[in-house]
Amino acid sequence: MRCVRLIFLSVLLGMYASHAQNKQLLYDFYEIPQSLMLNPGVKTPYKWHVGLPLLSGTSIQAGSSGISVNDIFANDGIDFTTKFRERVINGLTKRDVFGGSGQIEVFSVGFRNANRPSDYYSFGVYGEGFIAQYWPRDLAILAFEGNANNLNRRFDLNHFSTQGEAVNVFHFGINRKLNKKWIVGARAKLYSSVFEFKSVNNDGYFVTTQGENNILRNTIVADVTMHTSGVESLFDILLDDDVAQSIELPKWLLGRSLLGGNLGLGLDFGFTYNVGKNSYITASIIDVGFIYHTNDVKNYRLSGAATNEGIEIVLPDDLNDLNTDIWQDLVDDIERQVPFTTDDNSFFSLRPTKLNASFRYNFGSYRALGKDCDCTTRPSVKSEDFDYKNAVGGHLFMIHRPRGPQAAVTAFYQTRFGRSLALKTTYTADKYSFTNVGLGLNLQTGPVNFYIMADNLLSYQNIPASNYASLQFGFNIISWNDN
Amino acid sequence: MIRYKMKNHLLGLALLLTNVVFLSSCADEQDFDQFDDLSVEPLVASSIFYFESDEQTINQAGPGAFYNQNFTFEAFNQPFVSERVLEGTIVYQVENTTSKELSISIAFLDANGAVLDVESFIVPPEPAPLIERQIAYGTAGRSLDILRNTTDIRVSGENLGDTTSTSSLNEPKIILRSSAEFRLRLQ
Predict the structure, then answer these.
(1) Dist. CA A293–CA A93, nearest whole Å
(2) Residue pLDDT, tens place only, A354-405
């Protein structure tokens, strides 16, 4: 029971761990070097930048569609089983998803090519992970109600869909200003998978019908696969009481993070194009790549078809089989018809590719921003580094998920207060929320850059009732371009 | 100097806004212990066994028992079932299209061969109606320990009539069908 509770809570609270990997506040916020990770072709007004190790870019996001923690756990006096049946079992659909993602930059460095000032190079290492768990509606109904009162109802096994991973990424990117209109960029990535599990595109069903001979007939048709890598060795450490976890776990994590796990390759592409004097469009495609899993792989598969009407004794045919263990025969038949197998075959996994696109219009006199001030701590930003005082625009985000792409659209307004402070506010609509207002703040004091961004601020009135939340922050040291 | 002060005010305002957002956040009271009250009790159903004999086989066996066989049946005593079962119902259906009266009995046996429960049917010759009987186990019926300890089932068939007659119906038979419904407590 405790285990069931922990699993359920972790799934529900997973919405507070992180989610859809949309970073609409950071996207095209080019005062912040981490915006290069969302569009390698973003504007780069820096001479060089160095992220504070482990503190330059931390983000967590969380989301759930269809339900919030408050819907279930509010202390409202309603019988919990009734709430659970109405809001979870009958309320959620197979398209509802719980998920989260997190990212932490280990280090991040960028510099402008002295011989070719139009090129800006950036490289670094970051770790990230995500989990996306679709609600297994039919399986949940089967577990909650059983099959007795659901005759002829097919419980679809394809409702089971889950995916998660942790990966360390080594990357190097080039950003090039081609001319006054075009900036393009590309980034190469080497993935070192720490662990991954994936069970998607399953098929099959379980159904109970009236029997042909006996009263009931149970039928299962299954094609369910779970691929894992790195999971077995992790559980070996976690479940073995004789292992010193405080020593072995970091060793395991470090080993698999530093190219000791499974490796893969990926690419990012992006551009910025000036449409007119004050407006431009951007687009990027991130994580076009794969990981090839060859070590510490374990795959599980349930595949086949079987029907069962219980033990059958038909005379006179079975008079000759009086000594046969017909129970064991029945069990063996089912196991032969729907075998549960494991193997360690290598497998590919495609990266969760993300697409960004935006349109932006700048207005207001930005040149006034460059005037000298009497500050005792003077920002190092120069007058031509930024091309706006105010900006408005829209942003589209899409990510590939097992049940098709998930999309989010954002409208944003961005403004600068002098050369030290920039604010960005966003309104985002996606399947998790239609009331998502976010706020991002970028501060520049001398060479020190600090940013913090949070999503779905209206939900802070009652956090458990939220369907989505995110937070990201970081510190950088930046040297801005000379004019 | 004025600009410097203004800038500080703006910075202060921004930090204040940030603090307001994060520090003024609040939450309705949550009670995660409610999960302990969750009751997940599905009603699961499956056929148990099917027995069929044609009339010719019954006649050839002669007077008295024409079938008596024990077989292993370990569905009820599986830990997943025996540790979670709250109540159960076993449904029997008996259909006789032979020309003779027959007796069918089903006995549940434990691992030592001791009889835990017996259900018997005396079935008149055709045209006999379909006999259906539901046996409840649990609070409203017989002890659940019968099911929990059952490892074998004995099916017996006895001819209470003659050994020569044959029904005029097409393919005369005695048929015993059975199924079980269990309410299990998963949580």
Answers:
(1) 32
(2) 999 999 999 887 654 444 444 444 444 444 456 778 999 999 999 877 777 8
- Token readout for A260 is 């000791």
Cα distance between residue A312 and residue B48, in whole Å: 9
Residue A379 has what pLDDT? 47
Residues in B touching A144 (Cβ below 8 Å): 40, 42
| Neighbour-count burial of B130, counting CB atoms closer than 10 A to its CB (0-12 exposed, 13-18 middle, 19+ buried) | exposed
Nearest partner of A402 among A99, A127, A140, A194, judged by Cα: A99
Q: What pLDDT, on the 0 to 100 scale, is given for residue A18?
A: 35
Tell me the DSSP string of A254-318: HHIIIIISEEEEEEEEEEEEE-SSSEEEEEEEEEEEEEEE-SSEEEEEEEEEEEE--EEEEETGG
The minimal CB distance from A418 to the residues B7, B43, B44 is found for: B7
Domain B40-184 top-level CATH class: mainly beta
d(CA A214, CA B32): 45
What are the C-alpha distances in Å from A463 to residues A88, A99, A194, B25?
19, 17, 32, 7
Residue the block writes with tokens 């994590």: A253
Among chain B residues, the shortest Cα distance to A213 is held by: B50
CB-based contact A310 B91, cutoff 8 Å: no
Q: What's the rounded Cα separation, in Å, for the pair A339 and A300?
A: 10
How far apart are the C-alpha atoms of A150 and A442, rounded to whole Å? 57
Tens digits of residue pLDDT in A141-187: 999 999 999 999 999 999 999 989 999 999 999 999 999 899 999 99
Query: Which one of A215, A312, A441 makes the best mutation probe of the B interface by having the most chain B beta carbons within 10 Å?
Result: A215
Q: How far apart are CA B29 and CA A463, in angstroms?
A: 10
pLDDT tens per residue, range A309-361: 999 999 888 877 766 788 888 899 999 999 999 999 999 999 889 999 999 99
Phi-psi region of A375 (alpha: psi -120 to 50; beta: other; left: phi over 0): beta
Backbone angles phi, psi at A60, to 5 degrees: -135, 140
Domain ranges of chain A: 2-442+458-480
> What are the boundaries of each domain within chain B?
2-26, 40-184
Give me the interface pTM, i.e. the ipTM: 0.84
Show the low-confidence residues of chain B (pLDDT under 70). Answer: 1-27
Low-confidence ranges of chain A (pLDDT < 50): 1-19, 368-384, 483
